[in-house]
Amino acid sequence: MDIKIYQVDAFAERVFKGNPAAVCPLDEWPSDELLQNIAQENNLSETAFFVAEGKGYSLRWFTPGGEVDLCGHATLAAAHVLFKHLGYSDDVIAFHTISGALLVGKSGTGYSMSFPASNIQPIDASSDLISALGVTPVETLSDFDYVVVLENESQVASVSPDFAKLSNLGLRGVVVTAPGESVDFVSRAFFPKYNVNEDPVTGSAHCELAPYWAKKLGRTQLVAKQLSKRTGIVQCEVVHDRVILSGNAVDYLSGTITIET
């Protein structure tokens, strides 16, 4: 069995920046075990797999530790592969996912993705969460992640989590955020239970962050920066119950996975 594979740096203007994702176009779905094994072998934060479905594509995402319900950067990478390498000619790609329909089109900054906005809600920070991060939050919220608001960008940059403790918390992971110095807000994202201690640029987390900061800052268009070592810029717009995330993508490699059966 041969499977085409592309590796794309998403939310990046040049290679070695943003968040790398593997993308595997498929003719039909193989076993979940094979999908998980490929994701483990790739050892990237996400591997995206898609199969043509009607006028769109069925899309799934796997980390080395398991399948996830939503992933922004690997969706952007999958759209980039379709537009640039596989001859997709319509204006917008419809991806059918476990989180509903995700629409991706070309934009002035590369690609724009329409995702469902999070219904993020304030919660009391647990002692376990505070101990795992080693900082006292200004505010704590949650939806599919814990979102921990800190005072400033410097605090976000200097957070040094205890990943073993983070992996024992509920929800998908932990995102720390604060107002930015040169952008509207900054963040970092940690998902150790999925074998991704720190994700370089997390599109799905901005479905939680953009609505929060739009309300705090009183505007719907925002520029965000994720403060990982690779860094990445995410353009955000909140439109009713959707978040429009925009960014570019660049190719790193393409090849073929060969699996003897």
Automatic annotation (TrEMBL):
GO cellular component annotations of the record: cytoplasm
Keywords assigned by UniProt, alphabetized: Isomerase
Residue positions of the active site: 46
Family matches, as InterPro entries: Phenazine_PhzF-like
Keyword Isomerase: yes
A Pfam entry, by short name: PhzC-PhzF
Family as reported in the entry's similarity comment: Belongs to the PhzF family.
Protein's UniProt name: Putative isomerase
